[in-house]
Design a protein that fits this description.
The chain is an alpha/beta fold. The protein is built from eight helices and six strands, in the order αβαβαβαβαβαβαα. It starts with a helix and ends in a 9-residue tail after the last helix.
Length: 181
C-alpha cells in the first residue's frame, strides 16, 4: 500500500490525527496541516495520513486541508496489516494512541504528542522515540475533553517543534529514505 504511493528515496512519514480516547489527545488539524506542508515542501517527504474506519471524516478533512500533499490511507488497513504498514514508515507522528505504540514496536521512529495523558507512564521508549509535552499545571488531567476548554497542553506543541524532531530523526536513523520503499 505504501510502496505503491512512495517516491524513490523520499522519507516516508505517517501522521495519525485521531485518538480513540477523545479529543484531549488530539493535536489540532491545522497544526498537522502546517507540519505536512513543511515536511513535503522543505524536506521532500512523502506523507501518509492514517486512521481507522471511524476516523474517515477527520482524516478526510486533513487530507483536504493538506492540498494533495499527503496520501490518505485511513480505513484501508486492518489490525492484521497495521504493523507491516507502520514498519514501512521512517517516522510516525501521533498523539498517545494505539497506532503510536504499534509503530514503536514495529521499529519505526515515533514522535508522540502528549497533553492529557502522562508521557512518563505511557510513552514509547527507545532511541528512535521522541515524546513532546508541555509542563502545564493542568496537565496531565486524563480527561477525554479539556475541562478548562483551552486545550493548551496540545496547542503549545508547535508544528515547527515537531518538524524539528522529524528532521533530527531523519538525519540520524540509519536507512531512512535510502531503500526506495
Amino acid at each position: 500500500m505504501i510502496a505503491h504511493h512512495a517516491r524513490k528515496n523520499a522519507p516516508l512519514v505517517g501522521v495519525h490525527p485521531g485518538a480513540f480516547f477523545g479529543e484531549s489527545k488530539m493535536w489540532p488539524l491545522e497544526y498537522f496541516k502546517k507540519l505536512i506542508h513543511r515536511l513535503v515542501d522543505h524536506e521532500g517527504a512523502q506523507v501518509f495520513i492514517l486512521g481507522g474506519p471511524d476516523e474517515l471524516a477527520l482524516t478526510g478533512q486533513l487530507s483536504q486541508m493538506s492540498g494533495g500533499r499527503a496520501v490518505n490511507l485511513a480505513g484501508k488497513d486492518t489490525l492484521e496489516t497495521l504493523p507491516a504498514l507502520l514498519s514501512r514508515l521512517d517516522v510516525f507522528i501521533s498523539g498517545d494512541s494505539g497506532p503510536l505504540h504499534v509503530a514503536a514496536l514495529a521499529g519505526t521512529a515515533t514522535i508522540a504528542l502528549f497533553g492529557s495523558t502522562d508521557y512518563r507512564r505511557t510513552a514509547p521508549r527507545g532511541p528512535w522515540s521522541r515524546n513532546i509535552h508541555k509542563d502545564l499545571d493542568c496537565s496531565p488531567c486524563f480527561a477525554r475533553k479539556c475541562p478548562l476548554r483551552h486545550h493548551e497542553c496540545m496547542k503549545q506543541i508547535t508544528p515547527e517543534e515537531v518538524a524539528g524532531e522529524v528532521i533530527e530523526l531523519l538525519s540520524k536513523k540509519p536507512g531512512i529514505g535510502k531503500d526506495g520503499n
